[in-house]
Amino acid sequence: MKNVTLKDAITIIQRAFNAMDKRLLDHGEKVSYILLKLLQASGNYSDKEILRLCTVAIFHDIGVYKVSERNRILDIDSIAPINHAIYGSLFIKYFSPVSDLNKVVLGHHFTQLEIQEKNIEDIPNEALLLGLSDYISLIHLRYNKIDNILIKDKIKDYKKENVDLYLKALKTTDFNKGLTNNSYKDELLNFFDKKYISREEIIDYIKMLTYAIDFRSEVTVKHTIVVQAMSYEIAKLMNFNDDLCIKIKISAMLHDIGKIATPIRILEKPGKLTEEEFETMKNHAIIGYKILSDLEIDDIRDIAMAHHEKLDGTGYPFGLKDNEISREARILAIADIFSALMAVRSYKNEFSKEKIIEILKNMANSNKIDYNIVQLVIENYDYIVKKVKEKTDDLIKIYENLKNEYRELLNKFL
């Protein structure tokens, strides 16, 4: 696996957000850039601190999963502890390498007056700086230019010293030009490109993105959790080395990334999809392929996006067949099917062990999936299920506890 920088992780996440809603095209990047310039203007932060805060800024809207929420954050006059800020802070708290900065996201829609009046504890000034950066970006999004009068009018909301930082940054930065012609991108991404991230951090960032996308659909998030664990266990049984097993695990975590653009009515439909709906669902594979392209991670992309390919060439999105489908992709395809068969849906119960084995055998005998891998799975069926349960129970509990904590925070701030 190539050395990965923070720029690579952020590019994947930004592309995913762009696929979800074009109205907020590159919004996270723009907010991060504005915050970068404010923090640099202050002179009170190290490069390491700025890097972490700008990373949080990229993800500040990661809790957005409802259309109604996206509509609200497009309103520059909406300053409230709305749902996405709470969700986003919890995602960062539980599923990111910058978990200690979760309250920066939690408080980015509060004003300093609200923080004082509601006696909200531990909301740092960086939350107000993020809120100001968010506000500036939305002004530019709405008017295609930044009116400094509008910024000065927000002194009571975001603090005079924070607005003064923006005015100071203006002396060396042309925000209007940079945000309009996208020249800000190179400066921001070059800043992120200086930070190499570990294998564990890569998994943490991908996990955060996966959970944020899938939160719209409880079925989808649990499926992803099981598929990544199952793929890993099958790879271990095939005696793949640790690096390859981790690569397969990461690919499995990303395999449904394209579903960020799939309508929730299709993801959660309680019954069989129509032909038209199925065609829409199939698009997630090619959308995922595009999100993961041109990032020097073609190996991961090709494993992740071949999970619906079939050995006889009848799969999608590319109709690959036989040796065109790697062993790694074959493992992921079988784990994807296995997980789906084990799942309980509104229109079906969990299939029995005998039924799952029968379906896998039939698909293998029909040259849809790899016969030898299926045989390995059948021979180790109970072991795989036991290991997957051990490795996914805690994750699923965190996910379910997150929903409870969200409700508690929402009640607290209402």
Automatic annotation (TrEMBL):
SUPFAM superfamilies documented for this protein: HD-domain/PDEase-like
Pfam families assigned to the protein according to its UniProt record, in alphabetical order: HD_5 (PF13487)
> Does the keyword Coiled coil feature in the UniProt annotation?
yes
Question: In what residue span(s) does the HD-GYP domain sit?
Answer: 198-393
**SMART domains given in the database record:** HDc
NCBIfam families membership = HDIG
What protein name is recorded for this chain? HD domain-containing protein
Q: Please name the source species.
A: Clostridium taeniosporum
